[in-house]
Amino acid sequence: MQPFAYVRAKDVRSAIQAASSGPPGQAAVQYLAGGTTLFDLMKLEVMTPGMLVDLSGLAHEFEEIVISPAGLRMGALAKMATVAENAEIQRQYPVITQSLLQAASPQIRNMATLGGNVLQRTRCAYFREVDWTACNKRSPGSGCAALGGVNRKHAVLGTSEGCIATYPGDFAQALMVLDAELMIVGTRGPRRMPIADLHRQPGATPHIETSLQPGDFIAGFAIPSGPWARRSLYLKVRDRASYEFAAASAAVALDLRDGVVRDVRIALGGVATAPWRARAAELALAGRRLDDHAAREAAVAAFASARTHGANDDKPELGRRTLARALMQAVTMEL
Amino acid sequence: MAAEDPPHKRDLALNRRHLLSGSAVAGAALDSRAALAAPATETPRDLRAPVAIEVQVNATRFRLSVDPRTSLLDLLRDHIGLTGVKKGCDHGQCGACTVLLDGRSVLSCLLPAVAVRGSLTTIEGLAPSEGELHPMQEAFIDQDALQCGYCTPGQILSAVACVRGGHAGSDDAVRDYMSGNICRCAAYPNIVKAVRQAASKMHASPIGDAAGEG
Lengths: 335, 214
Prior knowledge:
The complex is a heterodimer. Chain A is an alpha+beta fold. Chain A has twelve helices and twelve strands.
């Protein structure tokens, strides 16, 4: 591991001031929250920040969970486990609980924060191992070893010539189907950003993964209440039943009246370079009776633009079946 | 270790790093870092210089100086001498390094020691007293829940968190909650039995349950 300076932030202002001293994408300064991604990647020397700004001293300010008729607010420094254990969230926003409980291991959920979770980096083996010199995400312009490599777990949606690394998370997809907004504090004060705007597809700049600016601190998440929130779920398909990243997953939030879709929101995981809102699938279902046939059609629409790279040729069909199953499970949910 | 290097060697190492990090941008970042890290004191010359920390382990407070890169795992094993906690993968994938932090299971390999706040319990601090075992330790012996034993301290601490958190109500619940702890000898069936056995004892005996809370 490369040496770094360690600073424990005493307040938000000093944290932002410290962290905004690095250029975008270069990551000379990093916030430290749970550390489960960052410290790991520092050991691998995939990330080599010169300074860590530890946010744990701010936890008391940014870990609160507030549930009201208007919606749900969660502080970004709340631990995954704490939120997963919240019975009222489980009742009103089951997709949140399910996405968290199916992620990582109990130990990691006890450490990792919500804010860090949405910013976790890809598990692409070529990104994580610096001996592979070709990785546009790690070293811009160096190429992509995954394109012609072992890519069974790589993305089929949102890929580019430069990067096919899969976004590995689950929770961001739950936020997406609930129309969550990030509450961000930055150098120019507080602002809000729809979760859908946070992650960038790789395009020609896979090393720039989010639209956050230097110094930006995710303070929390605001989720409006909606008729789709209770009939929501997260279905995750993976190589083993627990402690594994998604091979394919689907977050679904459904407003169903007499079997007919009034509103549906769909986000996919394990198959795309970023948390993936499947708008085409949503459109295919609007106003229709949701049965097996309609679910399959929506799933086909969701993967119309899929591009495979050999070892992951099975992923679009896995993704389609996962989504169709998730939709039908949502229909049969008892509220 | 940095502390053992003569001063001129440390300077050389730092200079080499400056050269490697290269650009003017990196230089600017380094300058601001130095200013922030020690606003009122002398600019630190060596980022590997020991930092003073204080941790509470098994109800004992330790004051130590460590390189900021030191993981909690290495702190416990190499600096404090508690070698019950094991280094398996060192990347948060195997669970051998599991310890309890304020009663919750965490991976000591993924925690920078400088960032640790709270009270730690390792396998050495779990038993309620000298010559007496925690019900979970007894259950692992009773059920023969190990072969080589390397993963066992982590398994036992995860298992304690599993029972205390109310996740030991069924074999499936135990399997799910214990999935962060790998056993390469595949003693899994007996580990599940051990957790279930201890769960009934820990509920029946509040003293055993509270032991080692730290």
